[in-house]
Amino acid sequence: MDEQIKKNVRKLARDAENKVARSLLRWKYKKVGKPVPAEHELENESRYVAEKAHQVIAKRGKTILNELKRVYFKDDQKEEGPGE
Q: For 37-59, what is each residue's pLDDT tens digit?
């Protein structure tokens, strides 16, 4: 895939994440009865929330993958047994 296409897809994904975060923040402010901040403040907050969520997902994803590998290889060794 062309690098420019990859870059554009990543930008689209980040923009979508920010829009979802902005919608959720707007909903949360209304739910708790607080006034919704100005659009530029909401935009900054949504970028921060989306970035933190992205970091958590990346970290947890690595942890889950490592745990799956550990379990898989542990089970694989049990089935073969010593000397097989």
A: 999 999 999 999 998 988 888 88
